[in-house]
Structures
1.
Amino acid sequence: MVVMDKRRRPVHQHAIAGEMRKVKSKMQHPDALNYVMDGLRKNATIELYQSGCDEEMVKAVTGRSGV
């Protein structure tokens, strides 16, 4: 998966991690600071499979060579 900035350039993982830290700091859940980016990837993978995507599509979206 590629996240783009306003100029349509790929955003680096560190920028996304920084944004996640901002969001997590505002969350009320006691475990929010323990959330990690791989957890989001796992959730996205599950959602893709549940919506009917095949393995090749899931690999293409998540950027993983193995599922």
2.
Amino acid sequence: MKSFLFDTNALIYWVNEGAEPHGDVSALIRKTVSENMPVFALASSLNDVYYAMRRHYSSEAAARESVRDIAELFDLVDLAGPFVFEALDSDEPDYEDGLIRAAAEALQVSAIVSYDRKAFRRSAVPRVTAAEALTKTIV
């Protein structure tokens, strides 16, 4: 069964209707729900989603509702010690990408849904955009 871990940027695109990839991300999420595919997000990503939505796109109430939507739909991954050390020792461009990669590899998801083209190049889990996930066969 296919499963996906969503990077923070993909989550922000989902909750921000004005974002260009919003339609693709929404379509992928609808597909995962209709086909009972597991979808994951790092619990720590919720902080960044809240901050981005509140600071740049919406009101306090809307930012909180965005976080609630993610928390209700996604399986949230807590950051255990091993993920932290794997991220710190990772060759990813930044620490958050290292956390996402470590979680994706541990969960053995089919793909990481992300719009960060520099991240996850050496990951055992492929990085795809939502549009790619909808059109490619992800093993």
